[in-house]
Amino acid sequence: MKAIILKSFGGPESFELSEVPKPVPQAGQVLVRVHATSINPLDYQVRRGDYPDLVPLPAITGHDVSGVVEAVGPGVTNFAPGDEVWYTPQIFDGPGSYAEYHVASENIIGKKPSSLSHLEAASLSLVGGTAWEALIVRAGLRVGESILVHGGAGGVGHVAIQLAKAMGAKVFTTVREANFEFARSLGADVVIDYRKEDYVDAIMRETGGLGVDVVFDTIGGNTLSRSPDVLAQLGRVVTIVDIAQPQNLIEAWGKNASYYYVFTRQNRGKLDELSALVERGQLRPHVGAVYSLSDISLAHTRLETPGNGVRGKIAIEVVPSAHIKGTP
Fold first, then answer.
1. Cα–Cα distance list, 4 to 18, 58, 60 (Å)
2. Domain 2-124+285-323: what homologous superfamily?
3. Predicted TM-score of the model (pTM)
4. How do residues 92-125 score in pLDDT, each as one tens digit?
């Protein structure tokens, strides 16, 4: 099978298209013909060497799969050849999704939502699971609460807006002015151009000084130390960014704030919950650009380029029919 191999840590040129043996499913595993995958910040962090002790080289990386079951190992009861599936491979535990085939444990695999193409499903598995873990599992977002989503036009952010609206929350988000209408189309109630206005001033003005119940950080920087300035009492801050610099959180004490640090855990349950929202029309990933498997390096370059013009996700087409709904 064809696979993209990471030969050394470094820039996008570190990838190489190679022929490698097709994996064989073992007990409890499913062999999937990968129709589509996608690019996430985690992918370029792995590529450049942020986690060298966890990624033995050479490696097949990639963290999204949408495809069709080709074979199952002994003991598999939930899937059969021909089933359309989607999932996030177990991060740092075996080969990733930049390949024509992938093997995974059946307990992390879900049935692909029938209304999504493979490109769309592959653009939702990791970011959708991340947003669900952050907003629902960790922050416990409830009906009638308010949330500030930083980076609402991005991969995780554009899903988080839709998820928060589905939960009955009022959504504030920071985006560039060019993405105002996009954010509103996702359900954002208040959009803030972070380049023209301090989001703290905007939030306090829009909430009458009360602040928001939840802050969702997808951008890093000084967001954690500034979050108490926009939090209501007993507010919660959730971040998915591994921030190296120290953060002064003393202001959080006066708000009785809770902080949560999220690294996505894989399981079928989250995928099934997301599928239900998709089928009810409350959630849909936005594919902002599509590249072929052989152009992974170009896709990485674009994602890492500031102001790249991509809304939502960059998807990777492994099988040319990946854009067609329900195509096996």
1. 6, 10, 6
2. Medium-chain alcohol dehydrogenases, catalytic domain (3.90.180.10)
3. 0.94
4. 999 999 999 999 999 999 999 999 999 999 999 9
